[in-house]
């Protein structure tokens, strides 16, 4: 049975453990079909209900998936090495345009905000039993969400965007469910989906956001959730336009049972307006991270959503970390209240570098895009070769494999560390690495 490997066990737990052990050891490969339920029951001399219970356990754990008459098969395993391992480390003498970090010069100083938070803690220490979300931060978040037209909902605080998205997905989905995700999209999210036992359904992206026809196809095929980046999409810089938001809202309204998650990590570093999709499905969440505007080490995001979703997130949080430090919450509240950064100034700084690079590439015959945020996406015919040639030319860029499922190859260039004097040299290097410069020599 199943070639060299024999499933063993008399009880459902033993049968499930036998299969899971074989998958973990590589003896059962992803995509391998398991025996039909009744056939395995005869082989093991057990009741078919016992095998059914074992298969149900394996499905719940995300080990196998069932496709009707096509039977049950081993699911593709979540990556043991995350996509972040595909990053290109910049050796000495090589400029790093791959890391995706904000420009430290555009981050606000944190000393005063942290001192104010510490003083607040000294006056009113936060002890067990205190509310998970500080009143000050909650009020500021609600006001900002309302100003951006986000549907009204309660507030939760998490340790960054990915933590929020994971908690929202876990609040509603079960292993085997399908999630519509952008392709190319955020590499950490593309790792998270299979790690939760969920199945990603790729949705293409242009400069105005997810393509409605591809999202429609994913929803028609049974996707239970969709994750959309509102602005500064990673890696392409897409931002959902007003017209695209109208199309997407109309589409999502036809699927009220779908869980909608919006990622607005670009808040504070973009000058394009938010066009939220929230409120057209029964369950939804919008996540707003502080990482890009105030620094990744703050590890804080606020989310709002429908009451059931936020209540489930808060409830599960209480059984784990309990809450996000009020010292951090108060520091972020201070930064928001005092307008520690000017979003238009920050967005303008990133925009000038982004636009200058895209223009310089276009002058050299290289297509690129980046409507918002700090990244430029460059389609290339040979991703591995382009990355290697750029590294040899003194530039480290991020390989598109970190962000892609089925979309064509490309590389991501982070403009945060680029100066005006860097634009022409890196554009020349990209043109040469993609073969455009060489082709032009013979025109």
UniProtKB/TrEMBL annotation:
It holds the Pfam family GntR. One of its GO terms (molecular function) is DNA-binding transcription factor activity. It comes from Streptomyces inhibens. SUPFAM superfamilies: PLP-dependent transferases, Winged helix' DNA-binding domain. The keyword Signal does not apply. It comes from the Bacteria. Keywords: Aminotransferase, DNA-binding, Pyridoxal phosphate, Transcription, Transcription regulation, Transferase. Residues 9-77 form the HTH gntR-type domain. The keyword Lipid biosynthesis does not apply. The lineage of its organism: Bacteria, Bacillati, Actinomycetota, Actinomycetes, Kitasatosporales. InterPro entries: Aminotransferase_I/II_large (IPR004839), HTH_trans_reg/aminotransferase (IPR051446), PyrdxlP-dep_Trfase (IPR015424), PyrdxlP-dep_Trfase_major (IPR015421), PyrdxlP-dep_Trfase_small (IPR015422), Tscrpt_reg_HTH_GntR (IPR000524), WH-like_DNA-bd_sf (IPR036388), WH_DNA-bd_sf (IPR036390). This is Aminotransferase class I/II-fold pyridoxal phosphate-dependent enzyme. Residues 67-103 are annotated as: Disordered. In the C-terminal section; belongs to the class-I pyridoxal-phosphate-dependent aminotransferase family.
